[in-house]
C-alpha cells in the first residue's frame, strides 16, 4: 500500500509540474539578421522585456577568459556588507598572480597599503584585473582559492547556469573552466542588479586618489570615446571584454538608445596572439548588432485585449452555444518594424467545450503565440461574456457523463460478473443440496 501511495504521489507531483510549466511564457525568438558575424557564439536580448532577439549557438561550451570576473564580482559584492571596507594588499597575492603567468593591472603598486572593496572592483572590471581578483578572493576565503571557486560554482548553479564550471576567479585557461553565451547573459543580467556594477562597467577611467598619476583604465573601447577610436560606439554603456588564445575574443556589451536597451554576448571570435595586430572583432560585431536592433526592431503590440482569438463551445447553457475568447491583456513585444499581421499567429492550447456557468473575464484556456512559425509567448484567453447554467442540462449531462464513463462501465461489468458468479455458485449449491436430499431419502 505504501508503494502505491508513493507512486500516486509522484504522478500527482509530475502533473502539477507539467501544469506549471505550461503556464510559463516563452521568450525565445531569433529574428533574421544580416550583420556580418565573427563570433562562434552570439546571444542578444532586449533588456526591457527579457526577450531574446538573436542567437547563434548560445549553449555551446566556450572559454570565458576574463569574463569570468563577472562572477567574481557577484561573489565579492554579495560577501561584503560595506563596499568601503579596506583590504590590505599583500605581496603574496601579487606573487601568486605573477607566478601563474598572469599580468597585473596596477593593484601591485599598492602593496603594503590598503584599498577599499570598491577600488578593487574598479581595478578588476576596467582593466584585466587579475591582481584585484586575487586580492578579493584571498580576503574572502582567507587564502583558500578552491573555497572561492566553490562559491562561484554554487552561485552559477543557483542562477540556473547549466553550462558553466569555474576552476579559478581570473579566467586563466583550463579545459574544465567554461561557460556558454546564454549563461554569461544570465550572470551579467543578475550582476546588473547588484550595487555599482553598471556604474563601474560603464566607467572609462578610475582614480583611487585624486593625485594618482596612473588610473585604472577600461579595455572596453566601445565605451571609451578618447581611446576607442574606430571601435567607439556612442550608445554603448558597458560591460567587459576578454581575450586569450583559447577563448579568442570575447565580449559582453550593453547599449541604450531612445528608450531601448540591449545586451549582446559575443564569444570565441578570431584571435591569434602571434600577430602583432588583431582586430577587435567582438567590438565591431556588437556595435553592428546594436545598430541593427535599434534601426530594425521596435516595441509593438500585435495582439490587443480587444482582439477575438477564437470561438469556444459552451455546455450546460440553454441560450448560449459558444463564446468568444479574448487575450487577457495586450501583448507588447519586440518585433521588426516591417512585420506584417500575418507573421503573428495565435493558437489556442485547448479547444474542448467549456461548461457554464461562466463569468466575463474568466480564464478559459491559454494560447501559444508564434512569429513566422517560431513559438515565443504564452497568453491567457478569457471569456467575453457571462453565461448562465441550465440546471436541467447540467444534471442531464452529468448523469450521462457518469453512465458513459469508463469507471461506471467498469463498475457495471464488475457487478455483472459478480452477479453471474453468484448465480452460478447459488445454482451449484442448490443442485448439491438437492442431490444430498435425494440420497438421504433413499
Give the gist of this structure.
This protein is of the alpha+beta class and 442 residues long.
What does this structure look like?
There is one protein chain. This protein has helices at residues 2-22, 69-79, 91-99, 117-125, 130-140, 145-158, 181-191, 197-201, 281-296, 391-404, 406-441; strands spanning 41-46, 51-56, 86-88, 114-116, 205-206, 216-217, 236-244, 248-257, 260-269, 297-303, 310-315, 322-327, 331-336, 344-348, 354-355, 363-371, 374-383. By secondary structure, the protein is an alpha+beta fold. Among the domains are: 41-299, Beta-lactamase (3-Layer(aba) Sandwich); 407-441. The strands form 5 sheets. The protein has a 6-stranded mixed β-sheet, with no helix packed on it. A 5-stranded antiparallel β-sheet has the order 2-1-9-8-7, with helices on both faces. β1 (41-46) and β2 form a beta hairpin. The longest helix has 36 residues, at 406-441. It is elongated, with a radius of gyration of 33 Å. Mean pLDDT is 87; it is low at 1-26.
| CATH architecture designation of the domain at 41-299 | 3-Layer(aba) Sandwich
Extended strand count: 17
Q: List SSEs in N-to-C order.
A: HEEHEHEHHHHHEEEEEHEEEEEEEEHH
- Tell me what portion of residues adopts beta-strand conformation: 15-25%
Oligomer: single chain
| Poorly predicted sequence stretches spanning 5 or more consecutive residues | 1-26
Shape: elongated
Q: What is the CATH top level name of the domain at 41-299?
A: Alpha Beta
Broad structural category: alpha+beta
The largest sheet, given as strand count, sense and whether it forms a barrel, is: 6 strands, mixed
Tally of separate helices: 11
Gyration radius, rounded: 33 Å
